[in-house]
Amino acid sequence: NNAIKLTNNAIQLTNNVIQLTNNAIKLTNNAIQLTNNAIQLTNNVIQSTNNAIQLTNNVIQSTNNATQSTNNAIQSTNNVIQCYRILD
């Protein structure tokens, strides 16, 4: 009887260890999933930042284009003024 009880106790302890191991594996998998989620969020932030930088660059380019157009208009106006001066 004692041998059977000891064997049953050993089996129960083994089952407990298996359960604890399974719990540890689940916790590890959860940690891995959380880490992957954090990496994905970080990548999303990086992508959003890159998009914002691109938009800013587009605005700068548009501003430069508008400035160039303004300068061209000023030059054209100056050319017309010069023509009138020559005619006068």
Automatic annotation (TrEMBL):
Record protein name field: Uncharacterized protein
The species this protein was found in: Lottia gigantea (Giant owl limpet)
Source species taxonomy: Eukaryota, Metazoa, Spiralia, Lophotrochozoa, Mollusca
